[in-house]
Amino acid sequence: MDAVTNSQRRCHAQGTTLVELMIVVVIIGILAAVATIGYRRYVGRARLSEANAMLAELSAKEQLYFMDVGAYVSVRDADDKNDDATGYHPIALTNSTFESARTPHSVAPTPASWNRIGLRPRWKQLYCTYLVNAGGPTDALPTPIGSSLWAAVPNVPWFYAVAACNLNTADDNDSAPSGVPSNATFLVLTHDSPALRTINDGH
Question: What is the pTM (predicted TM-score) of this model?
Answer without folding.
Answer: 0.75
